[in-house]
Amino acid sequence: MNAALEDFLQHIRHEKGQSIQTQKTYATLLGRFVQWAESNGLAEWESVNRKHLTEFLKNERNRKPQGQGEQGDQLSPESVYLQIAALRAFYQFAASEEIVPANIAENLSLPRRWKRLPKALSDIDIEKLLQAPTQSSASELCTTAILELAYASGLRLAELRNLRLEQLQLKDGFVTVIGKGNKERVVPLGQPAIEAIEHYLRVGRPELVKSRTPANVFLTKRGTSFAQNT
């Protein structure tokens, strides 16, 4: 695995003209994946599948930054963003060079970075928007879960409306999303979004379910999925 990694680093160094800092960052991030893969019995890149990538990213999400004890915070969304970006860049190269049969990282979705938030919203505005309602009706819990998910993932309105229960992988910290062109991608979530969705599923959604309710995650007061003009 290290030989292919070195080929990739040579590629971005000589053909892409990436900076030394970028090269070092990719080497560190991809080296961490290689170490994880080998510790899990994966000796060749061809043996890695997308499930392995999501398991690795789950492990990274829960990993404490170096120098912090058991009580330290988890890695930041920015760190996870960089890890996914590194995997996508490597697999794009590896697939083009036929090192691997397919680009299995193509549909890994990059989490939304803070700087992409609407500039019109201040930190205080965002906190107020995401603040849990004092009256926690089923519909309000649904709204809170939608806002937390949209804020954490950047999903489109159509993707939020059409999200189904079987697409949730909350224990692993991900959702799988069917987007444009019917393409599936994996979207990592932050802990606040996971907790809001879990609370809604446990307390709110059961009150909204009717006899013909679909398997959509988010439901209206009538127990139906949200309309396209919502």
- Identify the CATH architecture of the largest domain: Orthogonal Bundle
CATH topology of the largest domain: DNA polymerase, domain 1
- List the strand order in the largest sheet: 1-2-3
> Class of the largest domain, according to the CATH hierarchy?
Mainly Alpha
Instruction: Please give the number of β-strands.
Output: 3
**What structural class do helix, strand and pairing data support?**
mainly alpha
Q: What fraction of the residues are assigned to beta strands by DSSP?
A: 5-15%
State Rg: 20 Å
Number of helices: 8
- Report mean pLDDT, rounded to a whole number: 83
Number of domains: 2
Whole-Å distance between the termini? Answer: 48 Å
Which outline best applies? elongated
